[in-house]
Structures are given as structure tokens and as C-alpha cells.
């Protein structure tokens, strides 16, 4: 779907099932490149010591096609938030079953004690570094 629409960006989720995971986006670029398949075959000589054996390597290269479009991940990855609670003994416990509403729940689900977890209100709007030029404000007369 992303490939058919040239205006869309390709999104990569590090944890696809996590609703708090923020994607890394790739931009589309035109290119003229070749797709190669390179196979390396090694053959060890028999009868020699393992330390002295020099494997013989042969390479087989094959051109598979021409690449006209690539996607580059040029932006920075945003912070990734995990819903994890640390219990006694430094044991980490996932809180997703306590936080996510996957089905209609009864009132007892909402009144039970849950460790404090505050998800971020918003992720970063930009994925490329920006120079803010911190300067003192100019004073006008």
C-alpha cells in the first residue's frame, strides 16, 4: 500500500503490538541501482590441523534486477515507552494486561489497584534534528 502511493512514508514499528510504540519513518527516493545475490562458498582442506587450515573461498554473483525506488530511514528514533512495573527483587512485570482494554470489562476491572503508569501525552512531532538557535530576545524601543 505504501509503495503504490508516492506521497506516503514507510513506517517501521519496533514493537508492532504495543500501542505506545512510536514508528520510525522512511522517505521515498528514486535511484538506479542493481540488486545482487552474492554467495560465498568455503571449502576446508582435509588432513591439515585446524589452526593451520586456510579455507578456500569462492564467490558466485548474480544480478537479480534493477531497483528504481528505495526507502531511507534518515530520521532519529523517538523515545520508546514500555508499560513495565518493577516488583521486589528487580523483577520486571508487563502492565499491558492491566492497562489495555481488549474487550468490554466490568466495574471490578476499573476499581482494582494498579501501579502508577503515566503514558506520554504526545510523542515528538519531528524526527529530524532541529537547531533552535537559542539567543537572547531582542528588545525593541
Automatic annotation (TrEMBL):
One of its GO terms (molecular function) is RNA polymerase III type 2 promoter sequence-specific DNA binding. Residues 5-82 form the Transcription factor IIIC subunit Tfc1/Sfc1 triple barrel domain. Gene3D superfamilies: TFIIIC, subcomplex tauA, subunit Sfc1, barrel domain. One of its GO terms (biological process) is transcription initiation at RNA polymerase III promoter. GO terms for cellular component: transcription factor TFIIIC complex. InterPro entries: TF_IIIC_Tfc1/Sfc1 (IPR040454), Tfc1/Sfc1_N (IPR041499), TFIIIC_tauA_Sfc1 (IPR042536). It comes from the Eukaryota. This is General transcription factor 3C polypeptide 5-like. It comes from Dipodomys ordii (Ord's kangaroo rat). The gene is LOC106002581.
